[in-house]
Write a structure and sequence with these properties.
The protein has 172 residues and is mostly helical. The protein has a domain of 91 residues. 66% of the residues lie in helices and 0% in strands. It contains five helices and no strands. Helix 1 runs parallel beside helix 3, helix 2 packs antiparallel against helix 3 and helix 4 packs antiparallel against helix 5. The protein is elongated, with a radius of gyration of 32 Å.
């Protein structure tokens, strides 16, 4: 079957330019287009953000420094306070920058995340110390008198057994 070459498919008519819907134009209130550049963060807010980041890192490193159980409570308590200060500094730097209409201080969001993590971890460990204090105290006394590997393993086994008993009491 041969196809006629003189017939073409009709194209739809285009409406005149006055009937076309107009596309939104970029501008300050349209939400389209580039935003005007923000001012950089105030140097005082930037220093506050860096201090918060440093304190948040110190609080997390402090949690790794728990060696002795009796001193560990104080280390965790100080880490909790340092993390709370870091969180306060970072969130206040962010809110002051937002109120002032300037950009976010560098490191402030990271300091907020690390400060919140340090605060949560410290609080969790302090709660653990509070719940298992008698077992941990007995373990610390046992380990201070353990001079051999076998004696240290016996102390660990005693801690495992007493913590397991405590958990079964707490669990139901």
């Amino acid at each position: 079957m041969a196809r006629p070459t003189d017939q073409q498919t009709p194209t739809p008519p285009t409406p005149p330019p006055s009937h076309r819907p107009s596309a939104p134009r970029p501008g300050p209130g349209s939400g389209l287009g580039p935003r005007p550049p923000r001012q950089p963060a105030d140097p005082a807010l930037q220093q506050r953000a860096w201090a918060a980041l440093l304190l948040a890192v110190i609080s997390l490193f402090g949690m790794m420094m728990i060696g002795n159980v009796r001193r560990g409570v104080w280390v965790v308590a100080v880490s909790l306070i340092i993390a709370a200060i870091a969180l306060w500094l970072s969130t206040s730097a962010l809110s002051r920058a937002r109120r002032g209409g300037s950009g976010r201080p560098r490191g402030a969001m990271f300091a907020t995340v690390l400060g919140a993590a340090g605060l949560a971890f410290s609080a969790f460990v302090l709660i653990g110390f509070a719940i298992f204090w008698p077992q941990l105290s007995k373990y610390s006394d046992c380990m201070s008198g353990a001079n051999t590997v076998a004696a240290q393993q016996a102390c660990r086994q005693q801690l495992d057994d007493s913590v397991g008993t405590q958990l079964s009491i707490l669990g139901g």
